[in-house]
Amino acid sequence: MKTVKHKILVLSGKGGVGKSTFSAHLAHGLAEDENTQVALLDIDICGPSIPKIMGLEGEQVHQSGSGWSPVFLEDNLGVMSVGFLLSSPDDAVIWRGPKKNGMIKQFLRDVDWGELDYLIVDTPPGTSDEHLSAVQYLAGAHIDGAVLVTTPQEVSLQDVRKEISFCRKVKLPIIGVVENMSGFVCPRCRKESQIFPPTTGGAEVMCQDLKIPLLGRVPLDPRIGKSCDKGQSFLVEAPDSPATSAYRSIIQRIREFCDLHPPEGASLVPS
Amino acid sequence: MEAAPGNLAGVRHVILVLSGKGGVGKSTISAELALALRHAGKKVGLLDVDLCGPSLPRMLRVQDRAVHQCDRGWVPVFVDREQSLSLMSVGFLLEKPDEAVVWRGPKKNALIKQFVSDVAWGPLDYLVVDTPPGTSDEHMAAVDALRPCGPLGALVVTTPQAVSVGDVRRELTFCRKVGLRILGVVENMSGFVCPHCAVSPGRSRGGSPAPPRGWERPRVDPAPCPRSARTSSPGEAARSWPDTPESPSW
Fold this sequence. Notes:
The structure holds two protein chains of two kinds. Chain A is α/β, with parallel strands linked by helices. Chain A contains nine helices and twelve strands. In chain A, the strands form three sheets. Chain A has an eight-stranded mixed β-sheet with strand order 5-6-2-7-1-8-9-12, with helices on both faces. A two-stranded antiparallel sheet of chain A has the order 3-4. In chain A, helix 3 packs parallel to helix 4. Chain B is built from seven helices and nine strands; from the N terminus they run βαβαββββαβαβαβαα. The chains are: A alpha/beta, B alpha/beta. Chain A: GO terms for molecular function: 4 iron, 4 sulfur cluster binding; ATP binding; ATP-dependent FeS chaperone activity; metal ion binding.
């Protein structure tokens, strides 16, 4: 971890809000600059979506003298997931907490990440073993912060508030909140509807109440799901989409946050 | 077959609602299923074993209720005046709604065991068990604790995207490994009808998983994006059946 400058956890109390989709596109966005070294670590042991979303299903992990090698999508974008260790995509990982913790420890300790500017860690929903282990094993190595993903409806926000409590309990800085699936524009009539109505004010009100930055809102574009299924970057497949603009703006804010919080020993002022 | 001991003695059928994938609508479908069964005159218990993200109290608008003790253990919260639908969730045990349950596996397992055996469920036609996404501690604990009830049924929920279907295939493997009887797969959010132009825009469709070779099971009709996603109150959707085009064919 000493060779990794910035570490970002992508969290949500709620499942299915788009954590993995967001993690993948954060990685794609940051890696568009070929001088930025990026890696994406998927610690959702039971439901590893990242290989599919990144178009790397079926890839295998290799061992070398310096540890496991991540699977490289680009020269500057590496990926690691338990999905690469399964012999069949239908294999279920039916592990209890201690075994999951052991795997996460190995991912963080035994993978040869090399020199990285950003390590993005995609997590499963919840506040349990995987989250505690990631925070515990990364504790000595300075985590820049967590990005929390939600959707606008209260049933998501109530879980995300718990995740915020978790972050505060374990003293994990919060970079901000992303409100995903925030409005749907019909590709036929172009009118906007709310599939997940923000009956309690959505992420904006929650962020105001809890004094946390709202990094941005990403509208629901059906092409996002299609890109994920094909393992393509949505940012490249649909550059004109309002969702792409939203992603890019959010990625820029995350970059700015990391630049303001350099790793220990680095100077804020460029020489 | 002998009746299960203790508080499970009166439970006739158990249905676990599972999905490898989060956010596909397990809790919504658990609530809708329980309400539909109650509407059909059955006595139903609803057990929420999602300890980190307990959605059911709010969905059924009983989030401000408290759980009480009796000589047989905890009394579940009754959702209706007739006391034909009861609910147990960790949501009722939190001091504050935003409090995070930050527990590792063993502690979660212990609470789930208590929820099954130390809740005075009484006579139930159905116990519907809502689970968190995945194939881990909560699922194994629930299956182990419920085994005395006899064959356990599983309803697996997915959405059409390939990314959901992948996780659900793993869940089906889990079901087979632990001996659950798969009642069927529900494909949720199976299309969206634009309220402005009444057209269903194209959607990503990986397709619900074909049953693994050698398996035969019924396929439940697809449920279009249900009103409950828009109302956040499954009760409203259940009460409006069978009048709406979204009424799934239970």
